[in-house]
Specification:
Blueprint: E1 2-7, H1 10-20, E2 27-32, E3 42-43, H2 51-60, E4 65-68, H3 71-75, H4 78-83, E5 89-90, H5 98-101, H6 103-113, E6 120-123, H7 126-136, E7 140-144, E8 153-156, H8 159-168, E9 172-175, E10 182-189, E11 194-196, E12 201-202, E13 205-207, E14 211-214, E15 219-222, H9 231-249, E16 256-265, E17 268-275, H10 282-289, H11 294-302, E18 318-325, E19 339-340, H12 342-345, E20 352-356, E21 359-361, E22 367-369, E23 373-381, H13 384-396, E24 399-400, H14 411-414
Parallel strand pairs: 1-2, 1-4, 2-3, 4-5
Antiparallel strand pairs: 6-9, 7-8, 7-9, 10-11, 10-16, 12-15, 13-14, 15-18, 16-17, 18-23, 19-24, 20-23, 21-22
Bound molecules: adenosine monophosphate.
Adenosine monophosphate binds at residues 118, 141, 143, 150, 153, 155, 175, 177-178, 182, 204, 214, 261, 272-273.
Length: 415
């Protein structure tokens, strides 16, 4: 199978790493990729938002499967452009990706499918927003309706701050605050059959102790030893399958990766958000534990044959990933600094490795930082404590000027 992956973050590096280890994959390509992906795939400088260019590349390579990683190309309809050429593509249509692209659309689908979520109002004026804020009271949750790379949500007890965020967005969703631990549960679907993966937890705030601003994600781990038994089955039954059924019923069938961001509240499990693609950094730990070769699973989603797939096989152990971000992230990330110690960080036995996010090579082959989140240092182990220890050991040998990371990823869960 010749596979083309679209995107250039640590999620795509994790996808490429798994695909490169799948014996069914004979050729692996990525556009645009990054310095780490270039070590396992042939990278192509193609604009990932340009559907025609991506489709042309897929045809040129005679790809058997195209995997679209990030949300922006999905919402821009890149999967549709590839699908129109007849090449199987892993990822939803632009219309179905509105499940992530518009919070208001997602709320409407959830209402139609009877999926438990926070009560909410969609507001387009400051006066409406003020009314909604007062209806729910503090803490306030204000979400930009559109895509905002994980940074469009403000959760605060400061009413003025909440209102200011609402005023800065064209359309916002204001909703009740959901208390309780968060879980990310991914499912692979072909629009009919839904195959849940293993749950993970990510860390959205920039600083230890869940302080500081929201980010794209600073680390993740899997499994969740504290999660209630039967959680995956419950979410499949009450959230994932009804959502996939509802989207099919509306004439916008969803195939690809359905990501449910959940809050386990005292009143039950609630959906915080849906995403239309693999989450970053949770993908890094979920794929680290997946034993079934990846290409066949993604291809079955792309070709509507998931029902025929054998049950997925998982490693019983644990995985932890810790993100190294550049100085100033998320507000004003500094880029262009050399990264040292990458080779030393990798364990010879494959239990610790470095996935690249915002990196690039300069003319001399030196790896430079090129984005807000720079690296995702990932490790596996018999349990979370071992995986966590290995991830932080690996991280200790990496040097990036001003680089920042959280020191408490998976700390509580590792016990
Ligand atoms: P989202 O982009 O919708 O995932 O929101 C980003 C983060 O904001 C989530 O991971 C939560 O930590 C927080 N958040 C979003 N919605 C709520 C809510 N209704 N109640 C509490 N926290 C929320």
């Amino acid at each position: 199978m010749k596979v083309l992956v679209i995107g250039g973050g640590a999620r795509e590096h994790a996808l490429c790493r798994s695909l490169s280890q799948d014996p069914a994959v004979t050729e692996l390509h990525c556009a645009p990729g990054n310095a780490g992906i270039a070590q396992v795939a042939t990278v192509h400088p193609v604009d990932q938002l340009d559907g025609a260019a991506v489709a042309a590349l897929a045809r040129l390579l005679t790809a058997d499967l195209v995997v679209v990683g990030p949300e922006a190309p999905l919402v821009a309809g890149v999967a549709d452009a590839v699908r129109a050429t007849g090449i199987p593509v892993f990822g939803p249509s632009g219309q179905a990706a509105q499940l992530e692209g518009s919070k208001a659309f997602a709320k409407d689908v959830m209402a139609g499918a009877n999926v438990p979520t926070a009560r909410s109002y969609v507001c387009t004026t400051v006066a409406e927003a003020a009314e909604a804020l007062d209806a729910f009271g503090a803490p306030y949750v204000v979400k930009d309706d559109g895509l905002a790379a994980g940074k469009g949500v403000v959760v605060t007890s400061d009413r003025a701050e909440a209102l200011a965020h609402a005023a800065s967005c064209e359309r916002v969703v204001i909703e009740e605050y959901l208390d309780g631990p968060e879980v990310s549960l991914f499912a692979i679907t072909d629009g009919v059959t839904v195959l849940p993966l293993q749950p993970a937890q990510d860390f959205k705030r920039a600083l230890d102790g869940d302080e500081g601003p929201n980010t794209g994600g600073m680390g993740a781990y899997s499994p969740l030893p504290w999660a209630p038994e039967g959680l995956v089955e419950e979410v499949l039954e009450t959230v994932l399958q009804p959502t996939v059924d509802e989207l099919r019923r509306r004439g916008t069938p969803f195939s690809g990766l359905l990501y449910a961001g959940l809050a386990l509240t005292s009143r039950g499990t609630r959906v915080i958000e849906f995403n239309a693609r693999f989450g970053d950094p949770e993908t890094q730990v979920v794929l680290a534990r997946l034993r079934t070769p990846l290409a066949g699973v993604l291809h079955a989603s792309a070709t509507g044959t998931l029902e025929l797939l054998e049950p997925l096989r998982w490693d019983d152990g644990a995985a932890v990933t810790v993100v190294i971000a550049s100085e100033g992230y998320p507000a004003d990330p500094r880029t262009g600094d050399p990264i040292e110690g990458l080779a030393e960080a990798e364990a010879a036995d494959g239990t610790a490795y470095v996935l690249h996010a915002g990196t690039r090579l300069d003319g001399t082959g030196q790896v430079l930082s090129a984005g807000g989140r720079v690296l995702s240092v990932t490790a596996t182990g018999a349990d979370l404590a071992e995986a966590r220890g290995r991830a932080y050991d690996a991280l200790a040998s990496i040097r990036l000027k001003g680089g920042q990371h959280r020191t408490d990823i998976a700390l509580k869960a590792a016990g």
